[in-house]
Amino acid sequence: MKVFVEDNILIKDRMCKAKILCNFKPPYSAAAVEKILAAGMEITDSQSGADAVLGTSAPDNMFYIRPTYGTVSRYGLVADVSSMDQIGVGASNIGDAFAVLSVIAGHDEKDGTSLPAEKYEYEYYPYEGDLSIYTGGCDYLYEVYTIIAAAEFCNNVSRFDGLKFGYRAQNFSSMDELVIKSRSEAFTLESKLKAMMGAYVLSEGQFEKYYQKAVKARRLIKQSVSELFLRDNTVIGVPDMTISYLTGFPALAAPGGKIYLAYAHKEGLLWNTKL
Amino acid sequence: MEYEVVMGIEVHVELATESKLFCACSAKFGAGANENICPACAGMPGFLPVLNKAAVELAVKAGLVTGSEITRRITFDKKNYFYPDLSTGYQITQWFSPICKNGRVEIETASGAKTMRLKQIHIEEDAGKLVHMPHSSSSMVDYNRAGVPLIEIVSAYPPEFRTADEVIAYLKKLQSLLVYAGVSDCKMHEGSMRADINISVRKAGDEKLGTRVEIKNMNSLKAIANAIEYESDRQIEALETGYEELVQETRGWDEEKNMSFSMRSKEDATDYRYFPNADVMPVTVSAEWIESIKSSLPELAHEKLARFAEQYKLSGYDAGILTENRRLSEIFEETALYCGSPKEAANWLISGLLDFVKEDGAEIEDIQIDCKKIAYLITAVLNGVINRPSARAVFHKVYSENIDPEAYIKANNLGMISDDGLLYRACREAVAEDPDGVKKYKNGNAKVFAAFVGGVMRKLKGKANPDMVNEMIKKILDDM
To answer: With pLDDT > 90 as the criterion, what percentage of chain B qualifies?
Structure first.
């Protein structure tokens, strides 16, 4: 099996593509990468010939499984939104995706949020029940996601300053100037906007209005999704990954853009989740 | 006009864990620059914090010895600020659920006993250190200290300290409690205990607090006492004369110039944007866990004080001095055991060892001394082998050079002279050489007596048996 590993999952000595990390040569590999190699799978540097893809977002035209938050170690994953980051597996064949996931899932003591189960055996059961689309019972789903994601992103990228590793601007006359120039030149506009929004929603006076409210709403969304699962003991369909990000429940994306959230199923588990 | 000084204290104490708070690197002091670091300490991406449970246990111990309430479910938060000694751009701390609340520390000063209340104790990680290169505009950063576990002990608000004596007594008491409990070695000179003092002054009787100034960078109790004196004088003078307007600010302490200087004002204050750290799961501190930590606490200073007074028949004062510091109390017990005379051991340590340490500017925690050697000297004096002044000199050699006292006394011929004939001759000479003194003595001036004894000691190089000399001189003078 050939596995392609996205840029934000570190492989020892593989340079990162992101400009801010341009000259950073990781001295270690992500836990998931180590497991892939230990299982005798091959890591390929091009996505086109790969049987499976490790990453945090769904690749086009593939099945993509994002398992329960905490199932795959985040050790060696460049943090974006710590409370949502979860390595998932994409593959053209859903069986391959589950096979790779079975290899990389399991407890890792280097990740404090890693779930305790040592090993997961994933099995795919075709589901033939109803699939209604659910939006978490919250009108502000995307706002809640955006606020929390921006806040955590802003904090996580604060380590990229041009001082220790990564991109460093030329021609500076003070430390502040070095940091400002390095960040201005290396971060994308999207990243800058996200970081600015993150700093704003955490700042004095705004924290209660935005961040704290979003966290409360997130808790309610998680509660309502959990209740739904408990009541119906079924699989629910969702329009995109947002509910999975916010709740930590697993999600599966099918090539046509169909995404559904899976939990327990009457005839057996759609896949084995531990929450 | 009478003024009242009002102070609050934040004390940072490094926890005595083997490894850092969130990674496996050594937390020990004194390694070469950047020897105790890993990619996590350097802020590299992909690393996740894994909480060191030993740090939580030590923080609980700190809570137990200060009578604090222990929080049963603790969480960790991120404090954002930019400074190169902070590799990630944020510090992991406890903002929303500190591990201990509402503790207290009993202190005693010349003006009596007082209970100082604590607002909270929380766990956090230390930052690295910037080293400014001489003859250059650049600075180097050493991340050895980055991630070393700390607790911050925050005194109650509104602030309750009124005098420098109270502050010093409080810091000493904290030091004693925490060192005994094994929470920290609390060495101010190595930075494992650091204090920031908030200080303001107001007219006596006023309710409203004055403009508050925070003083940082004081690394000894003496510096703290000096800084409080300087800063309260500065503030009172500013209020009295109006020459200087007091502003809320952070000031540093310059030990050499003995003055405080402005570091940053309130306007420059950072918005730390505290928020929960999603990488560290909440930790439940169960009743069973607290109970097992409690049962692992060693005998504390006040318990030891009571036992010393009872078991060794020491005065409360002596027992207090000997138990103020855990290392000293251990040296005492070992010495008392070997020499069999606790009272003598207490005297030798209080007015011998403590003097040496003080003269040296050393810390008693760092003292390595063979208690058997002290015990040998004590016994030698009791058995008349050597007199006290000579023994003290040998004791100092034991302290500073770890000599073998028995061999040293022999080699340097320091044994006490108790030979009747030799002593008698020396006494006669001393008296004969000072006819003026004899006259004075005969006229009732008893003070000159000591001069005769001193004369004999000089002749015999300080080795004369003092009891015998006293007796002989008295007899010689009285017979004249």
So the answer is: 69
What residues contact residue A57 under an 8 Å CB cut-off, 6+ apart?
A64, A88, A241
Tokens 């916010």: give the residue: A246
Residue ranges, CATH 3.90.1300.10, chain A: 2-132+234-272
Tell me how far apart the alpha carbons of residues A98 and A66 are, in angstroms, rounded to a whole number: 10
Residue B48, min C-alpha distance to chain A (Å): 6
CB distance from B275 to chain A under 8 Å? yes
Half-sphere exposure of A108 (CA within 13 A, CB side): 23
| Half-sphere exposure of residue B322: CA atoms within 13 angstroms, side-chain side | 33
Sorted by sequence, the CB contacts under 8 Å of residue A177 that are 6+ apart come out as: none
Residues 6 or more apart whose Cβ sits within 8 Å of residue B318: B308, B346, B350
Task: Name residues whose C-beta falls within 8 Å of residue A221's C-beta, 6 or more positions apart in sequence.
Answer: A136, A137, A138, A141, A144, A243, A246, A247
User: What pLDDT does residue B199 have?
Assistant: 97
Phi, psi of B301, deg, nearest 5? -55, -50
**Residue of A223, A254, A209, A269 whose CA lies nearest to A64:** A254
Mutation target for A interface from B20, B25, B38, B44: give the one with most A CBs within 10 A: B44
**CB < 8 Å to A83, chain B:** 278
Which residues in chain A have their CB less than 8 angstroms from residue B89's CB?
155, 158-159, 161
ipTM above 0.90, yes or no: yes
Task: State the burial class of residue A71 (Cβ atoms within 10 Å of its Cβ: 0-12, 13-18, 19+).
Answer: buried
Q: Are strands A2-5 and B283-284 parallel, antiparallel or unpaired?
A: unpaired
Least confident of B48-62, B127-141, B338-352: B127-141
What SS3 class is residue B250? strand
B282/A contact by beta carbon, under 8 A:
no
Q: What is the pLDDT of residue A131?
A: 65
What is the reported pTM? 0.84
At residue B343, the pLDDT reads 94
In CATH terms, the fold of domain A2-132+234-272 is: Amidase signature (AS) enzymes (3.90.1300)
